[in-house]
Amino acid sequence: MRLSEHLDSSETECPCGCGLWRVEPALVETFEAIRTLVNVKRIGKGIKTQGLNIGKGGGVRCADFQEFIETSHNYVSRYHTHCPTQRGNVGCALDIHQPEGLTFAEFRGIVDMLCSSGHGVGYYPKKGFIHIDMGPERTWER
Predict the structure, then answer these.
(1) pTM above 0.85, yes or no
(2) Could you point out which of 42, 52, 61, 142 has its C-alpha 20 to 30 Å from the C-alpha of 105?
């Protein structure tokens, strides 16, 4: 199912196969805005435009999958917004991988510009992704 012009529910569904995929509409709008600015930057560098990649497990997570992540990865916070149980029946976080053709600093600059208020933003430069969520406004880097 299409969530927006460039985002499909198959990209946001929980990796355990439970069928959860719904994402907060405001987060989908933020994703689209990030994608637009990433492609403007790519065009300026003479690079072909393309989509953004949400990594496996980077969209909605059911409580069971989140528990698995928390027990198997010591860097995952127990405060998270990937699970829909925290805000109705929709996931409120996406992990977006660094776009091809942009440095992490360029990618971060775009996200900073669009998510400067009203979002939680986590930067993972060594892993090559940025976490954005609809939780309380805060930032962190790991």
Answers:
(1) no
(2) 61
